[in-house]
Amino acid sequence: MVMSEMFTQLGSVAAGIMFLWAMFQQYFPYQLRPHIQKYTQKLVSFVCPYIQITVQEYSADRWRRNEAYVTIEDYLSSNSSSRAKWLKADIIKDSQSVALSKDDHEEVTDEFQGKRYYCLTFHKRYRDLIVGTYLNHVIKEGKAIAVRKRQRKLYTNNTSQNWYGYKRSVWSHVPFEHPVTFETLAMKSKKEEIVTDLTIFRTRKQYYSKIGKAWKRGYLLHGPPGTAKSSMIAAMGNLLNYDIYDVELTSVKDNTELRKLLIETTSKSIIVIEDIDCSFNLTGQRKKKEEEKEESKDDPLLMKGKEYENKESKVTLSGLLNFIDGLWSACGEERLIVFTTNHVEKLDLALIRRGRMDKHIELSYCCFEAFKVLAKNYLDIDSHNLFPSIERLLGETNMTPANVEENLMPKSITDDPETACLEDLIPAIETAKEEARVKAKKKAKEKEEEEERLKKEKEAKEKEEAAGEVKEKEKTKERVKENGVVSVVKENGVVS
Predict the structure, then answer these.
(1) Cβ–Cβ contacts within 10 Å for residue 387, how many?
(2) pLDDT value at residue 286
(3) Which DSSP symbol is given to 397?
(4) 415 - beta bridge partners?
(5) How far apart are CA 88 and CA 106, in angstroms?
(6) pLDDT per residue over 189-206, tens digit each?
(7) Which of 10, 143, 293, 439 has its CA 20 to 30 A from that of 114?
(8) Rounded-to-integer distance, Cα 456 and Cα 209, Å
(9) CA–CA gap between residue 77 and residue 145 (Å, rounded)
(10) What per-residue confidence (pLDDT) applies to 160?
């Protein structure tokens, strides 16, 4: 009877509250409701001793996620997943087990220095402890956890049509899982120098602040195709544990969009523009608009092409310079900016000067030292009786590391794959040598023919000029002296 009476009373109270709330919602003026809520909160604050701190996922003044929210989420997911009842499962690279984190709308409890807090709602007597110590502890631990479980990403920029709306996205990404390292990179003795330079850069935050420079560094990688420029970038990312942003300039409409891409990148990242000489006109020939119009006015197809180019992309050299070295380049820190090109001589000197591209790295053809690295990687050998022949041939011809790698890849199952691959490599180098010789001979012949053609054109022009002079003399040589006066016989036969 006692229990039934208690439930009856509770039901009556609940019904009364619902009735009063319905009357309040329907008849109470909207203009007075904010004032009622204001004073109600003040009344509750006198009775309730708890304080609540709310961290929004998205800040009101920007579209990107609140960094404090992400950090706290990492902290709670790592430290409180064992106490949550609803969990999410995910797989992280190189992890041997499934990573668990709390699900959305799941409430968890965290314990700090003997005090227990529920969703960061705490008694006001602990205000100094929470604001002064606990929050700093959460942020510090959350960042450390994020670094430990972080999976690096490879980003590429989207077209501007996808930059706005509910599902806006400036960058798309996939997990970055390239296995290359500097140990497996085939190149000359520059590796130690580059690794040292990168390591020093990573620890120079205070130094860059002291000298008044943005914490960034530029690298220019240049050399023939197939010389591992892209692999060098991947090795940099693996060494520093940085994300990589691959910028496709041809899909960027103007300088404003380029700047937008920059501010949407994160710290601890590598911003890459590959084959920059092919992206748009950066050849250093800064022609005036009048000269360009003069060149294209007689060629409708060229004029139409220029109009299409201007319609599609208006990124300028000035905009790119500001992107890598202007005021906006300081909105972020610990960044590498890497350009690659096959033709460094085509680039504007202002783009690759020191201070913008701080370090120039030439990646050339495969030498014997680089070959030994490849032999170790592909065949797991340090020496072989065919090495001297290969060393001699590599010294006599130009062959890219990509071509050497293709020949070192075992193509069949044999008892001695090392010897088989090296025996395949030797004729490949000899073939490349012969092709280079034939190409050089052909080029020399074409040069000789061109010189012969120019010589014949010059001789023909000289003969034509000489014939013109003779004809002119024949027209004027009919001169006679009459009474000591020189008279010229004109074409109409009249003597003057």
Answers:
(1) 16
(2) 46
(3) S
(4) none
(5) 11
(6) 688 899 999 999 999 989
(7) 143
(8) 66
(9) 10
(10) 76
Among 125, 138, 234, smallest CA distance to 179 is for 234
User: What type of residue sits at position 85?
Assistant: K
Tokens of 44: 């509750």
- Which amino acid, one-letter code, is at 98? V
138 Cβ contact partners less than 8 Å away, ≥ 6 residues apart: 71, 72, 75
CB 232 within 8 A of CB 369: no
Digit-coded pLDDT (tens) for 382-435 = 899 999 999 999 988 889 999 999 888 887 777 678 888 898 899 999 998 888
Question: Per-residue confidence at 117, pLDDT binned at 50, 70, 90?
Answer: very low
Token pair belonging to 351: 């783009």
Specify the long-range contacts of residues 54-61, CB closer than 8 Å, at least 24 apart.
54/120, 55/120
Q: How many angstroms separate the CA atoms of 468 and 460, rounded? A: 12
With beta carbons less than 8 A apart as the criterion, state whether 418 and 381 touch: yes
Total count of residues recorded for the chain: 496
Distance (Å, whole) CA 126 – CA 114: 12
4-41: pLDDT as tens digits: 677 777 778 788 888 877 777 777 777 777 777 777 77
